[in-house]
Amino acid sequence: MSIADLAPEYIRNIAPYQGGKPITELAREMGLRVEDIVKLASNENPLGISPKAEYAIQEALFDIARYPDGNSFALRDAVSKKYDVAPHQIVFGNGSNDILELAARAFLTSDCETIYSQHAFAVYPLVTQATGATGIVVPAKNYGHDLTAMLAAITPKTRIIFVANPNNPTGTLLGRDELYAFLKQVPKQVLVVLDEAYDEYLPAALKSEAISWLNEFDNLIISRTFSKAYGLAGLRVGFGLCHAEVADIMNRVRQPFNVNSIAQAAAVASLADDDFVARSYALNQAGMAQLTQGVEKLGFEYIPSFANFVSIKVGNAADYNQQLLKNGVIVRPIANYEMPEYIRVSIGLFSENAKFLEVLEKIKQA
After folding, report:
1. Domain 3-48+275-365 is of which CATH architecture?
2. Is the peptide bond before 169 cis (omega within 30 degrees of 0)?
3. In what order do the strands lie in the sheet with 309-313?
4. What torsion do the CA atoms of 247, 259, 349, 39 make, to the nearest 10 degrees?
5. Strand partners of residue 221
6. pLDDT tens-digit series, residues 227-236
7. What would the pLDDT profile of 269-299 be if each residue is shown by its tens digit?
8. How many angstroms separate the CA atoms of 255 and 102, rounded?
């Protein structure tokens, strides 16, 4: 008997989440200079962080010997005012991944089922499996969510449905009318976790209006993050918006002080910097056009994306990924999403996108 056998089988069977390769790791592996490496693998904001957030971080350092505010009062107030929700409808997490896990830990047991789409975010099956619950994967429709099929998959054991909008890693988007009609048909005893990590990259005309639906759907949980458009990926701060009773249950399983004081201060300042978010959005729109036009010119197919990344069909994605790494470009192969012919490429600065396209062309012609 191995000591690992002391853990439940459903825990032993979990395949740990693999993040994008760090720049320093690639530099060591390939003998490259850090400054020559471009990382387009983790959907990070190439602009960095808001100047207001940077100042807030510096100020917060003076009080770092103290525990953070366990209730995130200042951040709770800022989110409440920004999104016009009651303070007690907000749950904070160590990134939005934490929100997904809190929902799972609070509401799932080994007798429950969750539903999520094929080609959807890898954390949904992970948090399901970590509770011993059973995940039901619904085949994708044009690389996105088939909401009709997801409704048909509901059983008396269904407790949570995970929906990503826009979806990661495919970038597909559900229309607001389609999403609203779906929520109307989901039984009240089934929670819908609507993952809107990339909402800030949507034009106003395409935003879902889901926050305004919270008063109508007690079973709706919306997760958001500061890791993408706000650029705070390294600080890990996200939040969930939901019915007050749902928030209360989730907060009962939340770890004390799960959002550190620097993250709280930076997030408050970031929410107040609309200009930075607007610049991030504009850069992303221009970069998306640069990348998609570039890959089209090279003869590659891609999935039209509404996020800050695009998935490109290159054929032997594992080989392309290795060649890109050798040339100092980090992207994300997504074979683990049942897409072995695709790589996912984050939108970077103009020069970073240009280097990716240059190396991509070089590999194709070799």
Report:
1. Alpha-Beta Complex (3.90)
2. yes
3. 301-303, 309-313, 342-346, 332-333
4. -110
5. 193, 242
6. 999 999 999 9
7. 999 999 999 999 999 999 999 999 999 999 9
8. 9
